[in-house]
Amino acid sequence: MDTKMDKDGRAVALTTTGNASKISTRSTRKKKTTLITPKRCIEFIQSKHSSKNFENGTAELFKETYIESPTFFNYFKPANKDKNFSKNVWLYDATRVQIPDVDYYHASYVEGLRPNQYILAQAPMNTSQQKEFVKMLQHVKAEAVVVVDAADDCGTFLFNKKEGDKVGLKVSSDKSTDDWSLATISASGLKDVKCGRINKWSGEKFGETELVEAHEKIRKYIGWGQKNPIVVVCKDGATKSGIWALIDTEADRFRDKTRVKLTDTLKTIRNYRSNCFDSMENFQFACSTMIEWCKKNNKK
Fold first, then answer.
1. Which residues form the Tyrosine-protein phosphatase domain (predicted)?
2. Label partner for 116 (CA 20 to 30 A): which of 14, 159, 233, 264?
3. 164 phi and psi, to 5 degrees?
């Protein structure tokens, strides 16, 4: 039964005789469905795998879906306590880099414009971790290494020749300025890997303009279009590495699509690498650097 409001604001029934008769047609209108049909659902799942097989598509869809809260079991194992630089930077189990014959190394895969485009890694803190770092480069077939931390203890087991000799890690300098250095690193079983380092990003003030310029120089040196991961290194493996991954992803997107998706990339990096952009200072510096990058490249 349809109703209407009278002058006192009460609901009264509509009459059903004469010209005053009003029959609602709302209930007979066909609504547009928002549900996917079974056929479309099957086609969607099949499209997830190149074989168009339903079972394979289901497996791929399962991998894409987070069905549980993130876990950190390997990070909190007592045996791994001394292998972590910071107690405030954890490591997701789901995205951690697993290396044959190495129980644990503090590094995570991070998606850029393609899966596993980056590895955000903690700098080796001793000769044992130095060996494991080299094994990681060999295992993932890294095409470039970018060290975005100028602290002395970050580069000791990467660029110190005396320590490097212990594992056969060779560093050949190509070009160096006060702001950045370019080199190649190699070891037994590891082909020459191009490496860039920012020389001033330490405790002292490091501005957005300097970071944008350093990114441009290092990217020009290592090139674009890598198929294997780029390993980005800082002391804790997240704070500065996350900022580099953000800028580099958006620079890559701008080259391809001439647009920027800052919020999407921030979320993606945090989903893959724990504790990136945790502090307000770190977040603001990342965003202001990205704005500086856009200003510079919009003029080209």
1. 78-293
2. 159
3. -65, -30
Evaluate whether 272 touches 94 at the Cβ level (below 8 Å). no
Q: What pTM did the predictor assign? A: 0.78
Distance CA 14, CA 24 (A): 10
Listing from the earlier edge strand, what are the strands of the sheet with 118-122? 107-110, 118-122, 230-234, 144-147, 190-198, 180-187, 170-176
Domain 78-298 class, CATH top level: alpha beta
| Half-sphere exposure in the Cβ direction for 190 (13 Å, CA) | 28
Categorise residue 211: left if φ over 0, alpha if ψ from -120 to 50, beta otherwise. Answer: alpha
The answer to whether 184 and 195 are in contact (CB under 8 A) is: yes
Report the candidate in 296, 199, 300, 290 with the shortest Cα–Cα distance to residue 247.
290
Tally helices (H) and strands (E) across the chain.
Answer: 9, 9
pLDDT tens, residue by residue, 83-138: 999 999 999 999 999 999 999 999 999 999 999 999 999 999 998 999 999 999 99
Question: Which pairs count as long-range contacts for 265-268, CB under 8 Å and 24+ apart, including other chains?
Answer: 268/110, 268/111
Beta strand pairing status for 118-122 and 107-110? antiparallel
Question: What Å distances lie between residue 20 and 11, 13, 26, 134, CA to CA?
Answer: 16, 12, 18, 87
Residue with tokens 């724990």: 274
Q: Is 232 helix (H, G, I), strand (E, B) or coil?
A: strand
- Exposed, middle or buried by CB within 10 Å (0-12, 13-18, 19+), for 85? buried
Cβ contact 214:180 at 8 Å: yes
* Cα torsion angle, 155, 160, 165, 168, sign: positive
CB contact set of 280 (below 8 Å; sequence gap of 6+): none
**pLDDT tens digits, residue range 187-235?**
888 889 999 999 888 765 689 999 999 999 999 999 999 999 999 999 9
What's the CA gap between 93 and 2, in Å, rounded? 59
